[in-house]
Design brief:
By secondary structure, the protein is of the alpha/beta class. The chain has helices at 7-16, 32-44, 72-81, 92-95, 114-117, 121-136, 148-160, 190-195, 197-211, 217-229; strands spanning 2-4, 21-26, 47-52, 86-88, 140-144, 166-170, 234-243, 258-266, 269-277. It binds adenosine monophosphate. Residues 26-27, 33-34, 36-37, 143-144, 146-147, 170, 172-173, 180-183 line the site of adenosine monophosphate.
Length: 279
């Protein structure tokens, strides 16, 4: 496994690779969710590259950039164990050279839901992912359904900019009790951790109701809200039922594939989760 700490160090081993390369972009503190992306990439590509970069431009002024968890030795051991060929860990001032003014923005898709709660977040994501695509030049890139809106936004960016990368969404990996894996779960106190199970429970209840023929948007949202509002430490940012393609909020009877997604705060920790509701 080649570990490149600068873009320059990455170029030669990248150029030496033949066949297809799959990229798994991450912010590190790797867990089983990231590993599932690496395994999928290994199964589908000749070689796998992982980027580990905590991207400052996708964090707001009140976000957790400074305290975002990091564990480089463990991350590298995981990449090695998953058969990763190349790891890219560039410094911030190389990804954002002094005086850099170019940004990438997909527009409306990035200003609803997570984008409304975290202004500028997706412009940071699309800007860094387009840079990573330019450096790594993968044929395929793997992203988790856990960050459902991110996946929609990156697919749109890749299509709009005609980038020669196939963007592949992979299922959310969960703890046995249902909590979606996230690097931020380490912030949760034991009480918050227990109450956070209401997120996946609420989504599962709505999914079951959907399967039973409840297709009314307000009723499905209310089911999820009730489950979460019963938790004294939980503060709902949003519970959304939106069109999977346009992310426009659904009203009344749902006629098209929908995305049920939510963001909930426990103290200073913000968790997101979602399920797809196919018509
Ligand atoms: P992050 O390091 O949080 O930026 O995540 C890097 C990639 O891993 C993103 O594509 C995420 O959607 C994906 N990811 C994070 N958590 C999970 C999970 N629980 N299951 C599947 N993919 C995940």
């Amino acid at each position: 496994m080649h570990v490149a700490r600068t873009v320059a160090e990455f170029r030669a081993p990248r150029a030496a690779l033949g066949g297809t390369l799959g990229l798994v972009p991450t912010m590190g503190f790797l867990h089983e969710g990231h590993r599932s992306l690496m395994r999928r990439a290994r199964a589908e590509c000749d070689a796998v590259a992982v980027s580990i970069f905590v991207n400052p431009t996708q964090f707001g002024p009140n976000d957790d950039f400074d305290r975002y968890p990091r564990d480089e030795p463990r991350d590298l051991a995981i990449c090695e164990a998953e058969g990763v060929a190349l790891v890219l860990m560039p410094p911030v001032d190389e990804v954002y050279p002094e005086g850099a003014t170019t940004t990438v923005s997909v527009g409306p898709l990035s200003t609803v839901l997570e984008g409304a709660a975290r202004p500028g977040h997706f412009d940071g994501v699309t800007t860094v992912v387009s840079k990573l695509f330019a450096i790594v030049q993968p044929q395929r890139a793997y992203f988790g359904q856990k960050d459902a809106q991110q996946l929609v936004v990156i697919k749109r960016m890749t299509r709009d900019l005609l980038l020669p990368v196939e963007v592949i969404g992979c299922p959310t990996v969960r703890e046995p009790d249902g909590l979606a894996l996230s690097s931020r779960n380490v912030y949760l106190s034991p009480e918050e951790r227990a109450q956070a199970l209401a997120l996946s429970r609420g989504l599962r209840r709505a999914e079951a109701a959907w399967g039973d023929g409840v297709h009314d948007a307000e009723a499905l949202r209310a089911l999820v809200c009730a489950e979460i509002e019963a938790q004294p430490l939980a503060r709902i940012d949003y519970v959304s039922l939106a069109d999977q393609g346009s992310l426009e909020e659904c009203r009344g009877a749902i006629a098209r594939d929908a995305l049920l997604s939510l963001a909930v705060r426990f103290g200073g920790t913000r968790l997101i989760d979602n399920v797809l509701l196919p018509v």
